[in-house]
Structures are given as C-alpha cells and as structure tokens.
Amino acid sequence: MVTLRLMNSSEFQEYFNLATENYAKEKVIAGNWNEEESIIKAKTEYEKLLPKGKDTEKNYLYIISQKNQPIGIVWLEKKSNENGFIRDVRVFEKYQGLGYGKEAMKQIEMVGKELGLKKIGLHVFGHNRIARGLYEKLGYQTTNVMMIKDI
C-alpha cells in the first residue's frame, strides 16, 4: 500500500528541476516545442502554475511512498469547489510496473473527495500508451483528442 505525504522544501526543489526537464522532453517528443526553447518554456509554465512553489494556494504536491521509501510524486490542483486536475503523477522508473501508480491514483482521488471535489481531470501525452491504459482502467474518460501530422 502506498501513502501520500506533502513535499518539503528540498523535495519540492528536486521535483521542480526534474519535472521541468521531463516536461520539456515530453513537449519536444510531442512536437509542440523545439529542443532549444523547451527548458525555458517548461520552467516558465511551472513558475506560472506554482508562483509560491509548494505553498501555492489550491495546489497539493505529494511524495508517493512505499514503506517510507519515496517512489514517486503526485500534484493535484483544486481548480474550483468541485473540480480538480492532476497536474503531474510520476512513479520513479525502478518502481514502475508494480501497481504503485494505480494505488497512488486511488489515494489522490480520496484526497480530492476530502477536498470536496466531484471530478478530477488530467492530461496525458498521446505517445504515453502505458499511462493512458492505466487511466482508462481507473475509469478516466477521454474528453479531447488533438492530432498532428508531419507533411
């Protein structure tokens, strides 16, 4: 069973650096940004979303733990009284494929209910088939699909 606990300041800084780097790579893979601008754009987006870091109002940044060992992160934003959005969820590579992502998603849904949320949304890059499969198994429904073709 995994547990969630709020990040401390040093964990947040570590997360911010890793997350912006990963987000930049994902945006390049998806064809949204070129590599040269990607890190600057990623940091700019994260700074807008989290102007006060881990203490940004209506944002909940958690460490996912298994037996007190950090195995990932999850970030939930309360967008309105009834709607939340999972901004990021990540199980560290060596812990992937063991069911921890599914458990963490169930835990963050319980947090959402405690916050009074009725719905939680998320974004997943189209090329991330493993994550898409997990979210579908958990009952998340596709609401939008964007497509692109090189010509």
From TrEMBL:
SUPFAM superfamilies tied to this protein: Acyl-CoA N-acyltransferases (Nat) (SSF55729)
PANTHER family on file: N-ACETYLTRANSFERASE DOMAIN-CONTAINING PROTEIN, SPT10P
Protein name, entry field: GNAT family N-acetyltransferase
Residue ranges constituting the N-acetyltransferase domain according to the UniProt record: 2-151
Domain of life per record: Bacteria
Coiled-coil region(s): none
UniProt signal peptide: none
UniProt-listed Pfam families: Acetyltransf_1
Protein's organism: Virgibacillus halodenitrificans (Bacillus halodenitrificans)
